[in-house]
Specification:
Elements (H helix, E strand, L loop, with lengths): L1 E5 L5 H11 L3 E6 L2 H11 L3 E5 L8 H12 L3 E5 L14 E4 L4 H15 L11 E3 L20 H4 L3 H4 L7
Parallel strand pairs: 1-2, 1-3, 3-4, 4-5
Antiparallel strand pairs: 5-6
Helix pairs in contact: 2-3
Length: 169
């Protein structure tokens, strides 16, 4: 699965990239602005965009996610460390993941969204993940196994990645 990461925080973006690559995903980015993210998304055709809701310079991740979906058919999982309810994003985003998020919860959230995008019922949904639209009532299948533990490579990610990912300021 190919991911596009759009995150303006200079620590969080690379941390997301490292965690997801260590878990076996192909990652494009991280990118810090919406215009570059749109251009790269069109060129690279990711399966999912991980988009920070509030980008630097007043750019809006919601606008980017809407554009990626409506103009390029690229689904987005929004990520935020702020109190954001997500109601306005239900028509164009798959869901909302709340920061701070631990690396294993990030991998599990993307795995659950990947299952949904493949037409499957996710085997588990991390508590920090809010699903939108027709997926909002989806829950883990009772008695099903959780996602497998992160790979050994993910467990050996740099120390900075092992900390919860949260926005500073």
């Amino acid at each position: 699965m190919k991911l596009l990461v759009v995150e303006d925080d200079p620590l969080i973006g690379p941390a997301i990239k490292a965690v997801m690559e260590n878990a076996g995903y192909t990652v494009v980015g991280p990118l810090r602005d919406a215009a570059k993210a749109t251009r790269l998304g069109v060129r690279e055709r990711p399966d999912l965009a991980l988009v920070d809701v509030y980008l630097a310079g007043g750019e809006n991740g919601l606008t980017l996610a809407r554009k990626l979906w409506e103009e390029h058919n690229i689904p987005s999982l929004l990520i935020t460390g702020f109190d954001h309810r997500g109601e306005e994003a239900r028509d164009f985003a798959v869901g909302l993941l709340r920061k701070p998020v631990m690396p294993d919860a990030l991998v599990d959230a993307v795995g659950a969204v990947g299952e949904i995008l493949a037409g499957l019922r996710p085997s588990s949904i991390p508590p920090a993940l809010e699903l939108f639209g027709r997926h909002e009532r989806v829950s883990a299948t009772p008695g099903s196994a959780a996602h497998p533990a992160p790979s050994a490579a993910a467990k050996t990610a740099p120390q900075a990645v092992q900390q919860p990912m949260r926005r500073q300021g």
